[in-house]
């Protein structure tokens, strides 16, 4: 079958089969790496050197723990910019040239994009299923398609509500249990001269996390193509809610979380709460004179949906040009599921939430001085990681969808509603799919 017929034709049964069809789409002039014979492991007398491109800091320090214990398989780390900031372009260029690393850090949301260009190896061909029970089932589902596995989950970002108890107590409030309570408390916080939180117009992954928690599934694949439901009722409910919150000035649209302006506002006590992921704890420590002032609570709930959502998350993927995919896979499994690998990634590289539910990481046990002694990782984030939307899947134009949604959201300053922006972004996403030759239709509503 030609590349275009694979893209345009039936995508098989379910999300997994749809992505499997994409996996057959190759760089023009090449055959699919996942239909070629598997590569045998290195011989007993052969020394293998694996290259790993990633933007995690001090990753070589963690890899050296493996290197010391595995003299026949050595791993060398090369730093690249964050994926959307130039790292992915380097990877795509290397793949097109027939070169590149054995392993790469690839965000979960970007795995289908790499599958679209036949850039990642189906690790089920090398025995990855033997290790499935080491990883969170929801995260495993986000890298698994029609019996194939296209990346090893590295970390994720279950979300919760960071908050200043003192600022809430000033208006007689405790951490809200529902988003409606959050808005009601927010009106009183606003009257006290503060923001309840922020709503970044440019970073639409935050809005996607809200929709995900509310039970939305923006895209899925069926036998005759992709089905889009970005403007479904769950998402529109979230859009209407934040339309009202922005209009009531409960939230700021100008203060991007963890930007210099946001840090200044937080240091001045003008930010009462922040919906963010588990990795936000380290960033919050950058707020001046904030030690002991912040706490963590479960995310407020929508009328229907889930307890938490995912904001961020990466994988270790084995790239198509690797000469040693089996050894690369074994290192990736060790790095992201063993106690030594996870503890090293937390201590040296600052990863998000561990992908192994059986080991959240020794550094995350016990109380935190910054959070007033609260053992928030075990109390809040461990349950949140189990309360994700299991039906959410990423799609092969995720970044473009986020970009068109951000363009539409910017119209909020000029009077466009977030509801209208979501409807427009759905139409724009459909056009992007069609331009790539991907069959797509709207969900029945």
TrEMBL record:
Pfam family, one: SBP_bac_1
PROSITE patterns in UniProt: PROKAR_LIPOPROTEIN (PS51257)
InterPro entries, per database record: Bact_solute-bd_prot1, SBP
Origin superkingdom: Bacteria
Signal sequence bounds: 1-23
Gene3D superfamilies membership: Periplasmic binding protein-like II
Keywords: Cell membrane, Lipoprotein, Membrane, Palmitate, Signal
Alphabetical list of PANTHER family matching this protein: ARABINOSE-BINDING PROTEIN-RELATED (PTHR43649), POLYGALACTURONAN_RHAMNOGALACTURONAN-BINDING PROTEIN YTCQ (PTHR43649:SF33)
Protein's recorded name: Extracellular solute-binding protein
Species of the source: Nesterenkonia halobia
